[in-house]
């Protein structure tokens, strides 16, 4: 199992203003689904921030997203550890396979993979 990227999910009710502000720091919009928008550094594309109003399909909003190369293997390891799964493993309509798990401090982690 390998981590591909880690993205903080910052909650906001003003994603446009966030995009404009972080644009001043050199970030550019790379994704916008209406409820979540991601900006990235053009020179270091894995340096990203996401701004979320609310999660579209999950019962809670994640604090951080971790993209992995094998989400099914990570899900099995997390489930077997006894950690609290707060959103089951599923394929989402926008093209990711993901689940949410609560870390030991109570933060919600969105673990995902993009199909290859």
UniProtKB/TrEMBL annotation:
InterPro entries: Glyas_Bleomycin-R_OHBP_Dase, Glyas_Fos-R_dOase_dom, VOC_core. SUPFAM superfamilies: Glyoxalase/Bleomycin resistance protein/Dihydroxybiphenyl dioxygenase. Transmembrane segments: none annotated. It comes from the Bacteria. PROSITE patterns: VOC. Pfam families: Glyoxalase. Residues 2-114 form the VOC domain. This is VOC family protein.
């Amino acid at each position: 199992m390998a981590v591909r990227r880690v993205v903080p999910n910052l909650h906001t009710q003003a994603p446009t203003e966030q995009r404009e502000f972080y644009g001043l720091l050199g970030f550019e919009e790379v994704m916008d689904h209406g409820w979540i928008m991601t900006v990235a550094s053009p020179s270091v594309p894995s340096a990203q921030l996401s701004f979320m109003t609310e999660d579209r399909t999950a019962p809670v909003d994640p604090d951080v997203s971790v993209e992995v190369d094998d989400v099914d293997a990570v899900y099995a390891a997390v489930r077997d550890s006894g950690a609290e799964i707060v959103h089951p493993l599923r394929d989402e309509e926008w093209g990711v396979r993901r689940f949410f798990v609560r870390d030991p401090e109570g933060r919600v982690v969105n673990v995902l993979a993009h199909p290859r």
